[in-house]
Amino acid sequence: MNSVSVNKTPTITLDGNNIECAQGKSVLENIESAGVEMAYNCREGFCGVCRTKLVSGQVEYTLDPLAFIDDDEILSCCTKPITDIEVKVIY
Amino acid sequence: MKYTTFNQKTIDTMTEPMFFGNPVNVARYDQQKHPIFEKLIEKQISFFWRPEEVDVSKDRVDFGKLTHAEKHIFTSNLKYQTLLDSVQGRSPNIAFLPIISLPELETWVETWSFFETIHSRSYTHILRNLFSDPSEVFDDIVVNDEIKRRATDISKYYDDLIFATQLYQTQGEGKHIVDGEEHEITQRTLKKQLFLCMNSVNALEAIRFYVSFACTFAFAERELMEGNSKIIRLIARDENIHLTSTQHILNLWSKGKDDPEMAEIAKECTDEAREIFLTAVQQEKEWAKYLFKDGSMLGLNEEILCDYVEYIANQRMSAIGLKTEFESKSNPLPWMNNYLSSDNVQVAPQEVEVSSYLVSQIDAEVSENEFDDFDL
Q1: Residue B319 and residue A80: Cα distance in Å, rounded?
Q2: I need a labelling partner for B312 at 20 to 30 A (CA). Which of B8, B161, B182, B359 fits?
Q3: CB of B247 within 8 Å of any CB in chain A?
Q4: Closest by CA position to B18, among listed B92, B112, B103
Q5: Segment (H or E) for B43
Q6: CB–CB contact A91 B315 (8 Å)
Q7: What is the tens place of the pLDDT at every residue in A24-52?
């Protein structure tokens, strides 16, 4: 299923749409590049506004997140997908 | 239990709850029950700034050109911000420090409050520049009915908690009569007051501040009052961290990761917590009405501001596990993000107008012929 692949950049699935990820971009930046509006404020992991449900797949953090996140959530501003992921907007 | 500034009992802070455990003794951070608070301290300190760094002198000219309605919006907004930070500059210290049991949380609260005092000082910096005598503006804060109404609700929960804590720490649990009024004090009732107070503080940091930020940045969107906006941008970044801290505290309680009794109380008082939040939302909408009573300004009116209140209320309610209340919609003020994003807050001394940095330090005058004799 969601295997780590070095040859292929991961895909983000959001509301049934697949977004091809660009190298080095955060989950938030990738979704924005696809023209989807996402809630955010600080873009630095401390405000928590970009909190997103991670339905499946894995991400890695580019910095230590300070905002509160539940077990099945990620901060899209400071994570990069390391496998194909499916995310769901919370609000 | 009497408060002591240095508890001589050996305590293991790793087993203490955040509040109402043993009073703290050694301010040590080598072991931490909730390491998030030290991370917040570090982040907050890395944001250190001084109001005087920001040149607000151009704002006086802008202010003179504002319409009567815009002047009302700007000044009222600043008065409200002054009120909020007056409360926040002292209250977390007075209300929370006497009942905190973890060194990292104690230091976080002190750091948090200290930054609120920077904010308070910056309002004086702004107002001194705008008015030859700013005292009229400051004096109105305590007599203006619209502001007073908000002040009552903001300070009420703090005041109740502080009073009950004083009784508890001087007289213990039981029924106490003060000024002819009976007060029943138990640790459980105190914890409930603490929970409600934390929710009220959360609503303040989550909703009330952001309404005022929207007004400030609406002026900046029209390239007006930009010095003021630079300061409020720094304040907004700090407030974002403060908001994160109260969200952490509320979640640690409700998810049973701290004091089990607080988890029970969080469950028991969900409706009250929700009510506190929704009251703040309602009051902010009323405030929007008052702000725009003499007329709107370009880019912002009562309706848009109220929509924004609902938009952020959903985010903030969800962040503390409350069911969202309002219909979800896209951000009615998308430009707000340009001011709230960390990337756009520039604090390096050479990048802002830092007077102390410039004085006798570097030559800020660079003319075109400076590099004439420069060859590669």
Answers
A1: 22
A2: B161
A3: yes
A4: B103
A5: helix B36-46
A6: yes
A7: 999 999 999 999 999 999 999 999 999 99
Range of the domain at A40: 11-89
Tokens coding B370: 């400076």
| B257 interface with A at CB cutoff 8 Å | no
Chain A partners of B39 at a C-beta cutoff of 8 Å? Answer: 64, 66
pLDDT at B356: 40
**pTM to 2 decimal places:** 0.90
What is the enclosing helix (H) or strand (E) of B86?
helix B68-91
The pLDDT of residue B249: 98
CATH of the domain at A53: 3.10.20.30
Residue A60 domain flag:
yes
Predicted pLDDT at B345: 63
pLDDT at B370: 77
Q: Do B341 and A41 touch (CB under 8 A)?
A: yes
Render pLDDT for A45-85 as a digit per residue (tens, 0 to 9): 999 999 999 999 999 999 999 999 999 999 999 999 999 99
Enter the ipTM. Answer: 0.90
Low-confidence ranges of chain B (pLDDT < 70): 344-365
Cβ contact, residue pair B247, A67, below 8 Å: yes
Structural domain total, chain A: 1
Inside any domain, residue A77? yes
Which residues does chain B have within 8 Å of residue A49's beta carbon, measured at their own beta carbons?
315
| Position A78 in a domain | yes
In the annotation, is B123 catalytic? yes
- Report the distance separating Cα B273 and Cα B206, nearest Å: 14
B4/chain A closest Cα distance in angstroms: 32
Return d(Cα B108, Cα B112) in angstroms, integer. 6
- How many residue pairs bridge chain A and chain B with CB atoms within 8 Å of each other? 57
Residue B111, CA distances (Å) to B22, B46, B100 in order: 21, 11, 14
pLDDT score for B113: 97
Check residue B344 and give its pLDDT. 64
pLDDT score, position B1:
74
| Residue A49 maps to a domain | yes
User: How many angstroms separate the Cα of B184 from the Cα of each of B47, B94, B173?
Assistant: 43, 21, 8
| Pair type for strands A85-89 and A11-14 | parallel
For residue B29, give the amino acid letter: Y
Per annotation, catalytic residue among B29, B80, B123, B311? B123
- For residue B349, the Cα-to-chain-centroid distance in whole angstroms is 25
Query: Rounded to the nearest 5°, which phi and psi values hold at A80?
Result: -125, 140
| Residue among A37, A47, A49 minimizing CB distance to B330 | A37
